[in-house]
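Sequence, please.
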């Protein structure tokens, strides 16, 4: 069985540390990937700290994986040794239900298999990308086009698809006014995509401290949400708001910023409920909805879109020894805009 060096959480409260793990033997349709880089998503922190419910430890997080294929099973057709590939938040699904047949594997009716902390079809607990190697069935391995560096590509596998998907679903493009709430890992990708799709883009951030960056990333406008004037000035403005905030927000306040038939799509996943007033939805027929990553075909479409538009994530590459510091810095919004682990430092 292939052994991988990894970094794991052993409880909700203790820091992560090194751990050797076993990957399964290559099955006929499996791909063995040497992981080069793995992004740190805020979901990793929610999960290892038990904020979304009790986790199973030891837990190796990481679902923004970029690497090189180093082995393939006998029946693998889609990938070959040497290919540049990525793996996102899921590693398997039933493949047969209506959702899977539509390429929306994240909504598999039998439950998709998460990249970490889930039970795989082999009965083993899945372990994620803060590791040197992973074995994944070929259908859940994405191609990373030439032209996107592997380190800048890693965050596309979660932060990228999670913002690309709602923008596509809600028809973003020229003539549409889009706001992205929260300029973090997801938010900065949302700004890049909305701009590349041709929308008029506004960032709604807690303060103006990242305004210059926001405009450089592609926003046309930038406002501070801690300033109550922002909500008065922008009332009724947007066709679409994508909320990426990892903490509870005042949903009614953001709904008031929507134009007729506008939609607020929530991708941020705080543990607390997000209450909403009936009148916020009744007035101007507003929509309040959510979005979960994206299916495999759309994830590949997003990667190809990135290659065409020269889009990658803005990253800070760190060695494994800095993972615990990085968690604290993510919680303090002190990252521009994604930490990416150089997995060659996992010894
Ligand atoms: P992140 O890098 O920490 O970004 C979150 C941003 O939210 C921060 O940069 C900050 O932006 C803003 N923020 C943080 N705390 C806040 C507070 N108390 N009040 C107001 N704004 C605050 O996190 P991420 O990795 O982008 O993930 C964001 C959320 O999306 C997480 O909850 C994550 O679990 C979730 N997620 C969901 C999916 C999905 O499929 N739906 C996929 C991936 C992640 P400013 O400094 O600009 O205000
Ligand atoms: Zn994620």
């Amino acid at each position: 069985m292939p052994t991988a060096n990894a970094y794991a959480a052993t409880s909700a409260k203790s820091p992560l540390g090194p751990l050797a793990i076993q990957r399964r033997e290559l099955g006929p349709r499996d791909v063995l990937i040497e992981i080069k880089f793995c992004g740190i998503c805020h979901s990793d922190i929610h999960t290892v700290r038990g904020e979304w419910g009790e986790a199973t430890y030891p837990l190796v997080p990481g679902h923004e994986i970029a690497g090189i294929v180093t082995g393939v099973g006998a029946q693998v057709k889609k990938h070959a040794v040497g290919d540049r590939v990525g793996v996102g938040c899921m590693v398997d699904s039933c493949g047969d239900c209506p959702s899977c047949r539509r390429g929306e594997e994240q909504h598999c009716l039998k439950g998709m298999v998460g990249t970490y902390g889930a039970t795989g079809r082999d009965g083993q607990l899945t372990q994620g990308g803060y590791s040197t190697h992973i074995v994944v069935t070929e259908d859940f391995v994405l191609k990373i086009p030439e032209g996107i560096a592997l380190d800048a590509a890693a965050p596309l596998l979660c932060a990228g698809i999670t913002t690309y998907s709602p923008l596509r679903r809600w028809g973003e493009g020229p003539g549409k006014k889009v706001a992205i709430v929260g300029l973090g890992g997801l938010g900065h990708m949302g700004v890049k995509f909305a701009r590349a799709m041709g929308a008029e883009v506004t960032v709604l951030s807690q303060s103006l401290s990242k305004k210059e960056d926001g405009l450089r990333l592609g926003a046309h406008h930038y406002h501070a949400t801690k300033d109550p004037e922002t909500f008065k000035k922008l009332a009724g403005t947007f066709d679409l708001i994508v909320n990426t905030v990892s903490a509870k927000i005042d949903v009614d306040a953001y709904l008031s910023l929507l134009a007729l038939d506008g939609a607020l799509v929530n991708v941020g996943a705080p543990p607390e409920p997000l209450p909403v007033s009936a009148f916020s939805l009744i007035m101007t027929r507003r929509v309040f909805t959510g979005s979960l990553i994206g299916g495999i075909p759309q994830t590949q479409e997003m990667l190809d879109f990135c290659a065409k538009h020269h889009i990658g994530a803005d990253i800070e590459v760190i060695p494994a020894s800095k993972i615990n510091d990085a968690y604290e810095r993510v919680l303090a919004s002190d990252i521009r805009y994604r930490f990416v682990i150089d997995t060659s430092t996992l010894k």
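Residues 85 and 144 are 5 Å apart (CA to CA).
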